[in-house]
Amino acid sequence: MAKPTYKELLDAGAHFGHLKKKWNPKMTPYIFMERKGIHIIDLNRTIESMERAANGLRQIARSGKKVMFVATKKQARQIVSEAAREVGMPYVTERWLGGMMTNFSTIRRSVKKMNNIDKILADEGATSITKKERLTLTRERNKLEKVLGGIANLNRLPAAIFIVDIHHEHIAIAEAHKLGMRTFGMVDTNSDPNQVDFAIPANDDASRSIELIVKYMMDAIREGLEERRKNKDQREKDKKKENPPAAPAEEATAEKAE
After folding, report:
1. What local confidence, expressed as pLDDT, does residue 75 receive?
2. Average pLDDT, stretch 62-72?
3. Domain match, 107 and 95 both
4. Phi-psi category of 137—alpha, beta or left, where left has phi over 0 and alpha has psi -120 to 50?
5. Alpha carbons 185 and 53: distance in angstroms, whole number
6. Residue-range definition of the domain harbouring residue 116
């Protein structure tokens, strides 16, 4: 897993913060300097924080638990949704519904409704619904898919949440805190880094910055999943060695006859 270099982060504009007048004083430890009224993030701290966050995500993936990725900002949606799908992690990129985690049972009912509509629409020969009803169901299904598609396969609450721009996704952060979940996030100079367990100081508005950091996090998760698979295969091999398959009955009878 290749960690982004200082130059790559610099080229991606990860060091650009917000205007000084918008800054959060709690970001002081991560600010390198001020240039033309804009705060410049210390990329050395960014690299340190990225490595720490990646190790945390790797451990969660290795344990078989899920991490939900949240990024409803336009410039981050496609980056996060595509990356999350590649590693089989849930994601929210359209709109955060209030209670998406604290009222998870209700959200699951909506997902179940979406799946039921899928079954109805999949039956091309169904005569119980009219064309108009099919059109209405299709529209309703598309609406549900847009908001809930990224968590359709999530059967229980995730163990952690990764957020692009914790200032923008404050409702998701509040719900994660209420449930005692581990929190990871990209934190710009206008945010409070203490709101997340693993804060990554970086420009959370530039798509190149977002893509670079999210890709590194996904690589860490991919490594964790691969380690889990290898450990599982090794346990199965060890189990077979401890309990070798019994000899066929015919062979056992032949051995007795001899």
Report:
1. 94
2. 95
3. no
4. alpha
5. 9
6. 102-156
